[in-house]
Amino acid sequence: MSTPAFDPSKLAKLQAARIGGKGTPRRKQVKKSGAAAAGDDRKLQAALKKMNVQPVTGVEEVNMFKEDGNVLHFGRPQVHADLPSNTMAIYGHGQDKDLTELVPGILNQLGPDSLASLRKLAESYQNLTARQAAEKKESGEGEDEGDDVPDLVENFEEVDEADAKKDEAKLEELA
What's the rounded Cα separation, in Å, for the pair 164 and 172? Predict the structure, then answer.
């Protein structure tokens, strides 16, 4: 029995054209990162449902005042509340902002009681910043010694002329 004649180039083409089938490795699945965030959101929604909170619509922004004078600001947050149990859930993208950035926008939202507490907060913030500035001045951090121009030690023209004379002397030695 004789071996059949085969063309190696045709065999290579057939092997290259083969996609899948018996003996080929399986394709690995690529995990999408968006699925993890959606899973967290579902867990959050399930926990809120157990707490019997209802979504509150029409909330454009939420500001939480911290003791250090900064404000945790949420723009367009999702708010859920259960008023009888005094429970609120606020979630969204929160940013730490300075109180002075938000004051013009929040003055019309505050009532007379809140204005008095805001004044106290502003006074304590001013005292805090004044204290920090005094501490910096005492420790020497406030001085900018590195920003000054250093004094001129040498005359650069004389150094340049001396270098030129040395170069001429070397050229004369070579010649």
Answer: 12
58 touches 46 (CB < 8 A): no
CATH 2.40.50.140 fits 51-138, yes or no: no
* Tokens found for residue 152: 């001129």
User: What are the CA-CA distances from residue 63 to residues 59, 99, 106, 159 (Å)?
Assistant: 11, 10, 9, 64
Q: And the tokens for 60?
A: 């454009």
Helix, strand, coil distribution of the chain in percent, nearest 5: 50, 15, 35
Token digits for 3?
């071996």
pLDDT at res. 133: 82
Is-contact 88 59, C-beta < 8 A? no
Ranges under pLDDT 50 in the chain: 142
Under DSSP, the state recorded for 107 is G
pLDDT for 167: 83
Edge to edge, what strands does the sheet with 87-91 contain? Answer: 54-56, 78-82, 87-91
